[in-house]
Hints:
Layout: H1 5-14, H2 17-45, H3 54-62, H4 67-91, H5 106-130, H6 137-148, H7 152-177, H8 193-220, H9 230-238, H10 243-267
Helix pairs in contact: 1-4, 2-3, 2-4, 2-10, 3-4, 3-5, 4-5, 7-8, 8-9, 8-10, 9-10
Amino acid sequence: MTQNPVNRAVDRATGNRGFERAARGGHVMSGFVHLLIGYIVVRLAFGGGGAADQSGALGTLASTTGGAVVLWVGVVVFLAMGLWRLAETVIGPHATEPSTEDDSSFFDRMKAFGLAVVYFAFAYSAYQFARGSGKSSGEQNAGLSARLMESTGGKTVLIVVGLIAIAIGAYHVYKGASKNFLDDLKTSGGRFVEPLGVVGYVAKGLVIVGAGILVIVATLRSDPSKATGIDGAVKTLGEAPFGQFLLVAAGAGIASYGLYSFVMARYARM
Length: 270
């Protein structure tokens, strides 16, 4: 079938090894971010402070020697991964592999587009922290939620956002428990790959589900202070019975996803 000019241009771009390597770097940076989030969560379990989310991880990185340089690298690789996901939106998943009929899957293309938005948001956050102007995403979420809760339409938007978060989290749990993540790899798994993927996806999914539930509950109670995203979900978990144990388990699970991200950097089908 003859390709249109856009598809041909995207094909040429994804055939560039430098572009692919930069995009794979997005997995590496994501791995570091998740490891830092896991560290913050465990620290919270033992009375430490910090925001247990992406902004907290980037802020921690920015405060270290050489952290700004790493953040600028993060901006580049996150942008590369975002552009790669946009390419998959146009020509289908696994752009470096021979095309198949399955590449026309609407779900796969929309998932790629959603991931593109996520990685562009990561790039923007890394850019802000690299410049020294980064802010807590939890505080920003609470402020936005407060404004939306002032109207019925705004509350409806928040509930829809909460339901979407629950669906995304549930998908992560399913992907981990069913080991479907192995379909994204060029390897069949292994002694360490499967456990990291299962634990990482399930743990991250449960935290995202918790964040979605909190958004809905906060909206129904008109309490924007609880609608702070992943950080709020983690800290609420710490207030539950056996909270310290649950926080340690959540931190270890999120860190497992971080380690699995390094596996994806090497073996992901691109």
